[in-house]
Amino acid sequence: MLPKSEYTSFIKSEAKRLGFLSCGISKAGFLEEEAPRLENWLNHRHHGQMSYMENHFDKRLDPTKLVEGSKSVISLLLNYFPSETQTADSYKISKYAYGKDYHFVIKDKLKELLYSIRHEIGDVDGRAFVDSAPVLDKAWAAKSGLGWIGKHSNLLTKQTGSFYFIAELILDLDLEYDHKVTDHCGSCTACIDACPTEAIVAPYVVDGSKCISYFTIELKDNLPMEMKGKFDDWAFGCDVCQDVCPWNRFSKAHNEPLFNPQPELLSMSKKDWEEITEDTFRKVFKDSAVKRTKLEGLKRNIKFLGDASL
Q1: 193: annotated binding-site residue?
Q2: By mean pLDDT, which of 18-32, 53-67, 226-240 is the weakest?
Q3: Which of 9, 170, 178, 247 is buried most deeply by CB count within 10 Å?
């Protein structure tokens, strides 16, 4: 049996080899600080129609209820900041959706990491999670020292800002644990001031039911008329709070080929978006997260944006 420090070093070096930006590790257990915060957020209906957020309350706060016998939560960051963005005369989609759906890309990397761990260490039980299970990704990443949760509720790092995905491996393996870092938002309110729909209702509190990402991706009903003219040309998701954050001056382009967009995407004009066909949608958004909203949902969003500018 190797000591914990060697296991920990091995896991972090493997994560780096697989292209992860950084890797931090926490002791699996109940997230005491998060419990009242999550309860308050749900009680205020900040999750809107995302009723799944109400499910598995205990599991969200305690990974040992999610993975029996778990001892460590390994948090991983994967950069998605693009080297090029869309043309100015365009309806916008969030940068995370430019390339292949991150769920698939990261899941493959996590499987490989878990395989390496088992190959090196032995019979380790664990599960991989990418944003699709009741795991409080940002809370675990912050607890693992990968950054702090900013006033816009995204994880922030001084070195690379916030344009990255968060994923976890939860394992029944004792490891060396990292420590939280300090908050460096200071008196800055750039994200709060810039939010087009005033969804950041207080520092560190986002009303998800007012967020452009919620409206353009999660909401299945008609878009609310009181939001007309407030979407700032965002057709899928929104990056405003990240774009204005001073720490994102340090964002560097990713080097994951699977996150590169189809070339047509970056040059699409508003007219191209308004006339988008099923064939174009399939070609430009092949394997993309944009497929979540389907062509019908995307057309709904574009029509709402177009009508709003009349």
Answers
A1: no
A2: 53-67
A3: 170
Do 201 and 157 reside in the same domain of the chain?
no
Residues 161 and 276 in one domain: no
**Token representation of residue 99:** 């390339």
Query: What pLDDT, on a 0 to 100 scale, did the predictor assign at position 310?
Result: 38
Which one of 58, 108, 131, 174 is the catalytic residue?
131
Q: Count of H helices and E strands in the chain?
A: 12, 10
On whether residue 14 sits in a domain, the answer given is yes
Total number of domains in the chain:
2
Cα 167 to Cα 126: distance, rounded to the nearest angstrom? 13
Q: Is 131 labeled as catalytic in the residue annotation?
A: yes
Range of the domain at 214: 190-251+261-308
Rounded to two decimals, the pTM is 0.95
Report, as an integer, the average pLDDT of 101-116: 97
At 45-103, the pLDDT tens digits run 999 999 889 888 999 999 999 999 999 999 999 999 999 999 999 999 999 999 999 99
Tell me if 131 is assigned to a ligand binding site.
Answer: yes
Query: Is 182 within a domain?
Result: no
Residue at 93 is within a domain: no
Say whether 195 counts as a known binding-site residue. yes
Domain assignment present for residue 123? The answer is yes
DSSP annotation of 218 reads I
